[in-house]
């Protein structure tokens, strides 16, 4: 029989009881099932066969737990980063009492691109030549094999997802509904890291069903209160209003309850965001048909 190895789920026989748990055996080797690793709802008897997960304890010995992990040597899944150690790597929770290390050799060179606590990595389990248990990140190809193509109706939809691969000019993301997404560095306001959760919107759907996403706010989402007043008024009027940055202050005050300075600042923000433009004393929403009637209210 092969030697018992960390990372395996095996069925062993209860050999004998000890003050701190039970010793289990495969007929050749014994491993300890500590009372802290026992299923409290299950009654254990001598010579009983039980299923356990094998791991290495703090002294490097093979030990057993009745808590089965989220991932194994054959099963991949998303696991949460629970600790970061720049000397060794990041520790992830696999659902057992002992977290496992994803080596720094399996992470980006820059610490700024490492995942932080609460981020997610798609991993499996491996053992090294010394029998030590590690988490191993899945390849991009394996993650992409989970995906489904997006339809054209995905355009402009809000999406959430996880960064699984860093590229030279952007990042690859698997959305929660399993679309493959790309975020270009120009479509975000700050750098992203491996394993980071994101929320954005689809700005392009490719022929192969992959999507491009932007993490920038829609224009109306990034407006301040004064700009929102003007934007709402423009929408209410069908996209055009007979006021611009040279309109008299008393008219601005009467119509919007804003000072001339506040009106100009808000209008400037909307123009900077390429949401409105001015022409011949009028202000127009972009991508709206002009009103033929230019009479003031």
How is the biggest beta sheet arranged? 5 strands, mixed, barrel
- The general outline is elongated
Instruction: Report the span from N to C terminus.
Output: 90 Å
Radius of gyration over alpha carbons? Answer: 29 Å
Count of runs of 4 or more consecutive helical residues = 4
- CATH fold assignment of the largest domain: OB fold (Dihydrolipoamide Acetyltransferase, E2P)
Question: Considering DSSP H and I runs of 4 or more, what fraction of the residues is helical?
Answer: 10-25%
- Unreliable stretches (pLDDT < 50, length at least 5) are 289-297
Q: Quick one: CATH class of the largest domain?
A: Mainly Beta
- The ordered string of helix (H) and strand (E) elements is EEEEEEEEEEHEEEEEHEHHEE
Mind explaining what this structure looks like?
The protein is mainly beta. The strands form 4 sheets. A 5-stranded mixed barrel has the order 1-2-3-5-4. Helices cover 13% and strands 36% of the residues. Helix 2 (225-236) packs across helix 4. It has helices at 140-144, 225-236, 249-256, 260-272; strands spanning 9-18, 21-25, 30-34, 49-56, 62-65, 77-85, 89-93, 100-103, 120-127, 133-137, 158-166, 170-175, 180-184, 197-205, 211-214, 240-241, 276-279, 282-285. It has 4 domains: 9-65, OB fold (Dihydrolipoamide Acetyltransferase, E2P); 77-138, Nucleic acid-binding proteins (OB fold (Dihydrolipoamide Acetyltransferase, E2P), Beta Barrel); 148-214, OB fold (Dihydrolipoamide Acetyltransferase, E2P) (Beta Barrel); 220-285, Arc Repressor Mutant, subunit A, CATH 1.10.10.10. The protein is built from 4 helices and 18 strands. The radius of gyration is 29 Å and the shape is elongated. Mean pLDDT is 91; it is low at 289-297. The protein starts with 8 loop residues before the first strand and ends in a 12-residue tail after the last strand.
